Amino acid sequence: MKRLLLLLIGVAVSVGFLWYAMRDTDLGTVSSAFQTANYLTLPVLLLLLLAFYWLKSVRFAQLLEPAAPLTARQLFGPVMIGFAANNILPAHLGEFVRVFVVNRQHRVPAGTVLSSVVLERIFDIFAILALFGVGILMAPDMPDNYQRGALTFAAFAAGIVLIMGVYMVWTDWFVTTTARIAGLFPIVPKWLTEKLLDLLRQGAIGLHSLKSARAILLITLNSLLQWLINGYSACLALQAFGVEVTLSTGLILTGITALGVMIPAAPGYFGVVQVCFQIAVQVQQIKPDPSLVLAASLYSQIVGYIAVTGMGVFFLNRAQLSLQDLQRAADQQS
Fold it and tell me: What mean pLDDT, rounded, does the chain reach?
């Protein structure tokens, strides 16, 4: 019943966002845009998508190396299964699915894998916010009303990046201090405080296992490259539909989407992503046709959804697992 309720809420949220994204669009224009789009971008988008997830597998191997010397090739399958599960299961349960698959295939303790996954998210947030700030600075002739809000958010993002840098360098002190500060605010729900502290402790385990400033630097550069590729892919999708944008739009879109997918929408986040695309392009003075932006967002999302889910199902079959196995694993570990 709880799972069904979450799914219904997610579907309702996605439908609401999709309606909002379509309010100023013309379906005839959207249809025409798909007929005239530049599909020479499709193989490039697929290659960029492959590079994005391969870099994730390389980083995953780097994070697990102190405990389990696995290669990116060995981990690519579990990574794709996990992200495919995120497209099918609600509440980001794909992360727990990846823990289950790596534990089953390579006998790596689930706690070790989970600490690496948590640390991945920390590096991702660091990279996304850093590139978002760069995107704001690069955005040409941003309207005044957007510029003020964007610069405020960029300053906030810079603060978060600085805090995360302190966490990576002085990990134990940071976790202890955060626990003390959290104790000063009893108004914050205890479950939320405990969840945050548990995530920080799990990430600390991963950071301690690296024991190398060089390893942390390489993982940071890997994370930045991943999300730079993601931003460029978004630009390419928009350009395929005649929306002339710069890389700054892609970097801003990456940051906005990272916030958007935190909303409890349906698996796949259709609707949410469309609104994120529209918000991101509004920082440009060119004011593109909303119908073209909607078409480009659907193109980008459908290509990614089909490719990622397809690869995940392929590796799922190779691992002799079923979707029911993944759902049970996600329920047990979450």
Answer: 84
